[in-house]
Amino acid sequence: MGKKITIYDLAKKLNVSPATVSRSLNDHPSISKKTKEKIIDAAKSLGYRTNKFAANLSQQKSNTIGVIVPRLNSNFMSTVLAGIEKVANDVGYNLIISQSLESAEKEVLNAKTLYDSGVDALMISLAYGTENFDHLTTFIDRKIPLLFFDRVFDLPNCPTILIDNEAAGYEATEHLINQGCTNILHIAGGLKRNVYCQRFKGYKRALEKYGITFKEDNLVEVDLDLSRVPEVITHIKESDPKIDGLFVANDTFAVHCIKELKKEGYNIPQDIKVMGFNNDPVSEVISPNLSTMDYPGYKMGVLAGQSIIGHLNGAINLQSANQITLRHTLIIRESTQK
Amino acid sequence: MGKKITIYDLAKKLNVSPATVSRSLNDHPSISKKTKEKIIDAAKSLGYRTNKFAANLSQQKSNTIGVIVPRLNSNFMSTVLAGIEKVANDVGYNLIISQSLESAEKEVLNAKTLYDSGVDALMISLAYGTENFDHLTTFIDRKIPLLFFDRVFDLPNCPTILIDNEAAGYEATEHLINQGCTNILHIAGGLKRNVYCQRFKGYKRALEKYGITFKEDNLVEVDLDLSRVPEVITHIKESDPKIDGLFVANDTFAVHCIKELKKEGYNIPQDIKVMGFNNDPVSEVISPNLSTMDYPGYKMGVLAGQSIIGHLNGAINLQSANQITLRHTLIIRESTQK
């Protein structure tokens, strides 16, 4: 790799002291406007890189928002990101995104990378395994706005945007019960995360409300990676009494369960009724079409973007808008018909 | 926002000159090891941010690789990214990703943001509209390794990783002809980009080889956004003589064409045989299952990651490995059966 341009190179080139260069790039009041301009021009033409210099010197802004998501191979996440991008681009902000791949360790590394790259704000949706939040306190301590979306955690002064997952889990389960299911298997993601834990709580509350006893065997916690579909199918085949309803915590996993169940000779919805979650486009590609819970990802992204940018521009004080809850909607299709 | 920690704050705190702080953080030889350590410790504990400081001071590395992709809501792209992540994580590199949303203008902004954030290398798959490459010359001039994948362009000393799209387009079309199709509609992405232009060339070459005259009407260039499906369906309904084969440049668009054609009463594959491209999981969700071209995205990501990291570690000279072509595979399923 070529050597990076340092303030020493700039100083030598312009015949000034390194301290003068450094002060100019930091917009120090001791340096004249003329000198600052000369140094900034030289820094630009030589390709000097610092995030502070990159954008608005006096405001020390990079006009960049960092986003950490669990996985990018998710229609829901890319829809949320599209909403954030829309709002950010309209006002000249750019996003840089990194994925934790559901690893708490990698999430720490992502936070460090985004911090070091000089982001003005951070939005995060947590990995399955994250239990410690030290990697985020650096942002809070430096008053860099931090917002949680979807998979959230309550930290002081950090707003959260999500849906009422408990209510949504309740309604999904209630719908299956209303369609005649009495032995419903729930496929959950990592239960440490609010979204999966709350959906599971909603599932349990619906069972209770309708006088159905919850059985530990009817909860399967997987990471929702498609490689885990076969073990779910085996679980269903071996269940006694037989499973007549399936509530899966996301659509992609639900769709692949339907596909495999059909291969095993199950008729959907006659033998097993299936509910997904998120209303991904794939829910309308599978036959029978999948009943699901609409989770307004794009709207979530837009609201998250508006909150952060409003705060950065001084129009909104994030501390006062502590939690935004979006509306979810039950979508009934063929996979849960009587 | 809180004020960022500057070298002046560090200098004041440690009772040394700002120049000493700056030199220490830049690992300047004029400063003693003991002083450097003291200053680095203070910089860490106070949260001083610069990308150079963030990582390996003496090597001026950030251990971060920047990636620009057209869109994140693509199974193919997230599979490529998974491959890059795998290799990068194994050796302690982290990715930061930004999406151009198919806009050349935004791609320029992305490149600037990633440059300013101090990435050690850049990997890019081009937007539909990119025609000018000035935004990438900064990287080349500073000898920051730059690699193109999938949607590539030939720039001096920048390796490219892709498949033989012309051959793949030829084989896809030849398969449709062998199955009896004589009036094949091709749905292409932006023809400025190699991948779509080459697939189209392959389509035309296959027609020619089998004595079928190419008709301008049988080429539809769309951005492959699902909002464009209805106009393709209208085009098919109004075509005379009727379309009996459809070769679509990606699976997602092909799958939604099948879904809508079925609604319009078409039998697939009896009335129209359909070929996709990429071998996304959704190609096995649609009924009938979609014939497609397997594009090894994960392998592409792994190779791209290995090339860049090998170069950064001095093990590979990227200039000597100018183009890597991966193998594609025709996947025959129900949607093109006779």
Automatic annotation (TrEMBL), chains A, B:
It comes from the Bacteria. This is LacI family transcriptional regulator. Keywords: DNA-binding, Transcription, Transcription regulation. Gene3D superfamilies: 3.40.50.2300, lambda repressor-like DNA-binding domains (1.10.260.40). CDD domains: HTH_LacI, PBP1_LacI_sugar_binding-like. Residues 5-59 form the HTH lacI-type domain. Pfam families: LacI, Peripla_BP_1. GO terms for molecular function: DNA-binding transcription factor activity; transcription cis-regulatory region binding. PROSITE patterns: HTH_LACI_2.
